[in-house]
From TrEMBL:
PANTHER family in the cross-refs: BCDNA.GH03377 (PTHR43818)
Gfo/Idh/MocA-like oxidoreductase N-terminal domain residues: 8-123
Gene3D superfamilies: Dihydrodipicolinate Reductase, domain 2, NAD(P)-binding Rossmann-like Domain
Name of this protein: Dehydrogenase
Species: Amycolatopsis albispora
InterPro entries referenced in this protein's UniProt entry, alphabetically: Gfo/Idh/MocA-like_OxRdtase_N, Gfo/Idh/MocA_oxidrdct_glycsds, GFO_IDH_MocA-like_dom, NAD(P)-bd_dom_sf
Amino acid sequence: MCPVDQQLRVGLVGGGPWARTVHAPGLAEHPGTALTAIWTRRPDAARELAEAHCATAVETVDELLGQVDAVAFAVPPSVQAEIAIQAAAAGKHLILEKPIAADLPTAERLAAAVAESDVAALVMFTLRYAIQTQEWLAGLKEAGGWAGGSARWLSGALLNETYRDSAWRHEDAGALADVGPHAFDLLDAALGPITGVRAAHRTDRDLWTVLLEHEGGITSTAVLTLRLPIMPTVVELAVFGENGFRSVNQRPGTPQDSYTALLDDFAALIASGTREHPCDVRRGLHIQRVIDQTIRVVRGSGGRPPSGQHSVVSK
């Protein structure tokens, strides 16, 4: 028999690998949430996932919104953004994946909808929720004096069966849209706000190299790909400066642990009425601007500020 409780009722949009392995079990097992309803474009997938977690498979998004207090997303960015705007307008709190939208204008619409409706909205920047990452970043902040840094995320994820058919990961932005948000978020948190994209290059095999400028004139580089035959995935972040060199050379924790930490914060935000968080929708919008400017640099379009870099500072 399925348990009955008074937890925060959360609906899940999506039924793919990430929904099955992270979102659904995380929501069903967390003491502050109850996985109440599931909607996907594939009814069979929704029913199968709902049966596994004592939830209800619904036929429409409107039906889902009518049964929940919050909505979690595990779908492509373009699908997420449009439904999330609708959910925010209906007063539902949001758990968003990165990037928060497929393009900057839609991301801006989503952030505006969240602000207007005064709902909580957290973004699943997986590594930021790991205790090891938080301790590392706290140490960097305490030491100070950092002059630059780098991030490398090298993977063969799009060569394996799990994500080989994930269309949005194969589109124009590729690795930039999928793992770029993680790299940019960590570099930003470690070195200060990213203010511009000085240079960017993408090979025909979706290998991205990005030169970023941070507040105070600090620079960093990010190298990203999902199409190299590398196992396990290489995730490296490093900073250097007056206090030497410090690095993280592995993925701290597990996605499931990070999701539990996100849900802890999510439930606390809603209970307290607080809306600000280091990984809230405004953070998602900031990272979306970095992605947008990187694409513009690669394509050679868009205005170039006097300093020579493409600005990502909000106007």
